Amino acid sequence: MSQFSASEVERHIGQFLAARVNDDVPVDRDLFASGLVSSMFAMELVVFLEQAFALEILGEDLKRDNFRTIRSMTDLVLRLQPAETHAEA
Amino acid sequence: MPRPEPLAGARELVDRLVGDRAADWDRDALLPAGVPRELAAAGLLCAEVPAEYGGLGATSLANGAFTAHVGSRCSSLRSVMTSQGMAAWTVQRLGSRSQRAQYLPALTRGRLAAVAFSEPEAGSDLSAITATIEPDGDDVVVRGHKVWTTAARYADLIVVVGRYRSGAAAVVVPATADGVTVTPVPQPSGCRAAGHADVRLDGVRVPGSAVLGGGQPIGMLVTAALAYGRMSVAWGCVGILQACVDAAAEHARTRTQFGKVLAEHQLVGRHLANLLTARQVATLVCEHASRCWDSASPEQVIATVVAKQVSATQAAHGAATAVQVLGSAAAHDGHVVTRGYRDAKLMELIEGSTEICQLILADHVVSSARRKVTQ
Fold first, then answer.
1. Total domains, chain A
2. Of A77, B244, B271, B370, which is the most buried if we count CB atoms within 10 A?
3. How many inter-chain contacts (A to B, CB under 8 Å) are there?
4. Which residues of chain A have a CB within 8 Å of the CB of B301?
5. Least reliable range by pLDDT among A59-68, A77-86, B54-63, B280-289
6. pLDDT reported for residue B3
C-alpha cells in the first residue's frame, strides 16, 4: 500500500473541502467553530478520509477533535495509515 | 472466480416463512418467534456484515433490493431487519476490531438485536438524550428510559445510546441483564408486529468492553448509527410501494363498475400512473444511495437522507392512493394496502421524521453553496 506524505494528505483534504464548500479552507481553520461542519458533514469527512487514504477510522478515533482542522485530519491519517515497513498489527 | 451470490434463495425463504400470514401477524401485533430467529440464523437480517465477521457480505444494492422484497411482504418483519442491521452497523462503525469480532458473528448466527435511541423527552431532538453510561471500575452502569425501541420485544441484545464521558457512546446490553425491563408498546399504529417496546435500564451493569465508541458528540454518534437504518427504511418503503402497485393493478384490472373495469376509468388510471412513478422514483433514489455506499463515496451521507426522505413520503402518498383505488375491498385491518398505509406513515416519523430530514437537507444546501468571493 502506498504511503501518503503530510503535504499530499493536506492537499487532498484541502481539495475535498474546497469542492464541498466552494471555498478555500486554511489548514488551521476550526471547521466546527466556523460553522462549516455539521454532524452530517463530519460523517462525510470520515467516509472521505477512509476512502481517499484506504484506512479505517474506528472507535475512539471518531472523536470530533480529529476532524476539527485540515491539520488535525492530516495527523489522524498519518497515524492510521499502515506503516510501510511493518506488517499490520 | 465468481463468488456465489450471497442472497441466493433469500427471497424464497422469506416467501415461505411469511406465506399469507402477514395479515394475521399485523392483527395479533406479534411475529412468531421462529420467523425472525430463522432469518437471523441465516445472516439475512444484517446481510451486509462482511464475511470476515461471519456475515454474508452483501452489497448495499443487493441487500436493499432484498429489504424491499421483505417490505413488500411484511413491514413488521422488515422493521426487525432494519433494527438488526442497524445494530450490526453500529458495532461495525463505532466498535473496535475485537468488538466487531465479539458481536457481529452473534448477530449473523441467530441472536436478535435492537437499537435504543428515543426517550420521553428526546425524539427528533436526540441531543436531549439523558440515559447515562457511567464507568465503574472495569464495568459501566447504564441508567435510562428508552421508548419506541423497534424490535426490543424480540431482542437478545439492546444497543443503548447514552451519555458517556464528555459526549456519547452506545453500549451493548443483554436484554436478560439485571435491571432491564422491556414493555411492549400497546397497539402501535404501524408495523404493528415489529416488537416496539419501552426499555427501562435501572442501574444495569455490563463490562466496559461493551461500550462502542468513546465520547463522540452525540450528533455525530447518532448520525453514524442511523445511517444504516435510514437506508433500510428507504428500501422498505420501496417494498411497500411495490405491494401497493401490485394490489392496485390487480383490483383495477378485475373490478367492474359502470360497465367497465376500474382501470378504464381515467381518474383511476391516473392513480395507477402515480403509483408507478412513485415506485420508480423511490427505487432510483435508493439505488443511487446504495451505489454511493458500495463505492464508499462521501456522497453516501447525504444520499442516504435523500433516499429516506423521498422513499418514505412517496410510500405514504402511494399507499394512500392504493387504498383509494381498492376502496372497500381494502378497508379492513390486515389488507396489504391498508397495512402499507399505516406502515408507510410510521416510516415518515422514524429514523428522522420527514421534517428532520428536510432540515438536514436544507443545511446541506446552504453548506454546499458558500461562494468564493475572490474571482
1. 1
2. B244
3. 86
4. 40-41, 43-44, 47
5. A77-86
6. 59
Domain containing residue A38: 6-80
Q: What would the grid cell of residue A69 be?
A: 482542522
- All CATH 1.20.140.10 domain ranges of chain B, comma separated, are 219-367
Shortest distance, CA A3 to any CA of chain B (angstroms)? 20
Judge whether A45 and A67 are in contact, CB under 8 Å.
yes
Strand ranges, E, within chain B = 113-116, 132-136, 139-149, 157-164, 167-174, 180-184, 197-207, 211-216, 256-257, 260-261
Closest to B342 measured CA to CA, from B151, B148, B186, B191: B191
- Chain B residue numbers with beta carbons less than 8 Å from the beta carbon of A59 are 94-96, 99, 212-214
Q: Kindly report the average pLDDT of chain B as a whole number.
A: 95
Residue B94: its chain A contacts at CB < 8 A? 58-59, 62
Cα–Cα distance measured from residue B107 to residue B88, given in angstroms and rounded to the nearest whole number: 7
The minimal CB distance from B364 to the residues A40, A51, A60 is found for A40
pTM: 0.94
Does A72 contact B at CB distance below 8 Å? no
CATH code for B219-367? 1.20.140.10
Burial A4-20 (b: 16+ CB within 10 A, else e): beeeebbebbbebbeeb
pLDDT band of A36, cuts 50, 70, 90: low
Which CATH number goes with the domain that contains A42?
1.10.1200.10
Chain centroid offset of residue B58 CA: 17
**Between chains, do B227 and A21 touch, taking CB under 8 Å as contact?**
no
Would you say residue A86 lies in a domain? no
pLDDT digits (tens, 9 = 90+) for B275-308: 999 999 999 999 999 999 999 999 999 999 999 9
Assembly ipTM: 0.87
Mean pLDDT of B115-132: 94
Which pLDDT belongs to residue B375? 40
Picking from B219, B301, B371, the nearest residue to A44 by CB comes out as B301
Looking at domain B10-111, which of 2.40.10.220, 1.10.540.10, 3.30.70.660, 3.40.50.1240 is its CATH number? 1.10.540.10
Contact A43 B223 (CB under 8 A): yes
As its CATH architecture, domain B114-216 has: Beta Barrel (2.40)
Q: How far is CA B109 from CA B67, B237, B271, in A?
A: 18, 26, 43
Residue A35's region, left for phi above 0, alpha for psi from -120 to 50, else beta, is left
Is the model more confident about B373 or about B344?
B344
